[in-house]
Structure formats: structure tokens, C-alpha cells
Give the backbone structure.
Amino acid sequence: MRTPVTIIGAGLGGLTLARVLHVHGIPVTVYEAESSPTARTQGGMLDIHDYNGQLALKAAGLMDEFHAIVIEGRQTMRLVVQDGTVLHETADDGTGGRPEVRRGELRRILLDSLPAGTVRWGHKVSGARALGEGHHEVTFADGGTVVTSVLVGADGAWSRVRPLLSDATPEYVGTSFVETYLFDADTRHTGASKVVGGGSMIAPSPGKEIFAHRESGDTLHAYVALSRPRDWFAAIDFTDASAAAARIAREFDGWAPELTALITDADVTPVLRPHYALPAEHRWDRVPGVTLLGDAAHLAAPNGEGANLAMLDGAELGRALAAHPDDIEAALTEYEQAVFARSAEPITFDGAEVQGIDSENNTAQAMLKMITEQGH
């Protein structure tokens, strides 16, 4: 296949696709809106699963590099009751299938595996249009354009490529995260540090929960989930860190102070992360020369699978293009059939279907029952 592939978006999915194409000798260019690899922080920890994300890294030939960035011990997982009691802890004995890495480090090894110049930084896409016969023109915010016969939208929730294939747009799902960080937790936030432990901790309840994990060193990264409408969050001034934290913490009145400290004692301004999703089983008719991967294709509320599925999408699309070098449409059809089949499957954790935050079963006791039944 000599036709260059054009990827919009240098997230984990787009970079995995670029790497797999490079492994197979297929020319590729990635256009990314960010001005450089370090233009913004890349989020916290990711658990990379042996049934999707790690398969993608194997296809990319990067398992050694992946193992080198795994942070040992972070697969430890605690279930905590609202009064701070640790109901259950699954230890990290090194045999689990979900090792934890920092998102930024994972992105770095993907970037380092590509030839210089593969990613064109500072190229924010303003739109894309069909030119006929499988060709598309992408327009950038600075007025520049590029024409391609293989266009891949790996540009996330608010994809500029998606309208070429689908009228679907993300909608608010009724829940949001409030994200916080506590630094030097072992000495400055000892209560929170003790309850979180050495890996991740979840304190669930119907309609709200606190999830936290220990990043490198003694940094705690928390996601406080609330099932509330957008207007409820809009009434909170998130530029006033202490007032915002206090308002969120009031929703957890009666919870143990070491848990609510993950909100009130944050060392950064709390950040609101509303959750959006595309329609369930989102799909589109085959349009010559263009496809989507990752959140651009199947955005869902956070469920532990998003980054893993984006990487698997990228790997499978890369392999399909390599397997059909003279028939782009056959490659895109094969890839999309696999993506659509995956989008119809329920999200599970080791075989058990994941409960939503609003479920009456979103409790530490119910989660322990699920874990026990799954043989943990």
C-alpha cells in the first residue's frame, strides 16, 4: 500500500494506528491540534488490559517498552465503605492482567516509536469535506489544507471528521467527575493516604462515589463522581477552589473525613469533567476513504475501557490496511465490522457486567459480592 494514511489526532488510538502502519511500511502522517507533545498534561494512570490494550501494544511491537513503564503495586484495589472501613483489598501480586502506567508515559513510548516528522503539531482541524471518489480535504484553523484518500478521525469526542460519516453528536449522560490531586500525601494528607492504600480505592454508593489512585510517589489522584444535571454543576464557581470543594463535599455529608479529604484538602483547583456519550451501538454506512476510531467512533461514559479500546481500534485498523494493501475499502469494511460488533457488547469486569453509578447495587458490598463470585 503506497497511499499515505492521514490521521487526525495524536491520542493513544491515533498513535497506535500510526505505529502499526509504520511497522508494516505504510506511510502515515498524524495531524494534532496541540502545539507540542508537552503542551498539556496527559491525565493520570491507566490500567492496560491484557485482552485489548496489551494486544494493541503487541501489534505495535512495544511490549518491552510497555513493561518498562509499568508502576509495580498499583493493581492493588480497595473497596471502602462510607465510614472509611476497608471492606476488601485485592493485592497486586504481579499476575494481574491490568498493570498501571501513566498516560503520558504511554503516549511517550508511542511517539518515540515513530519516525521524526510523523506527527505534525499545531494543526487544529476546522473541518473536512468530501471531494468524491474516496478523497477528502481537511482544513486547518490556520487556513492550510491537506487532501487524502485514506482519512482516519482519531480526534476524540468532538471529532471534526465524524460529520463525514454520521450526524450523531455526544450528549451529557447525567454524571460528572470532579477531579482533584493531593501531593506529598504520605506526610501532608496522612488520613487520605492511608485509606487509599498503595493502588486504587473506590468508595461507591448509589448516585455518587469517590475513586482515587496512587500515582508515582505519594501523589493521590481522585475522581469524585456525582449523578447530577449540568445545571447543578453550572451553579458552582469552580474558579473558587475552596468554595467549589466545600459544595461538592456537602454531597458526602456523613462520610469519613479521610474520604472527604480527597475533596476538601486538594492541592489544586477541582476540575469538572462532565461525561458525554454517543448513542449506544453508534455506527455508520461505509463512506469511501474515511473511518473513525476511539472516542470519535464510540464515546462512552468512563468505564475503564476507553483508552484500551482506542488502542485496539488503532491496531486492528492498521493490520486491516496492511492485509489489504490494494483494496482500501475492503480494509475499512473489515475494520468497521469488528468495531460495530464490539460496541454492541456490554461492559464487563472479569466477566461480570459493570453496574452504573445510579444502580442500587453501586455499593461496596455489592461489588465485593461480584468480585467473590468471579473467584477473586
The chain has a mean pLDDT of 92. Residues 306-323 form the longest helix (18 residues).
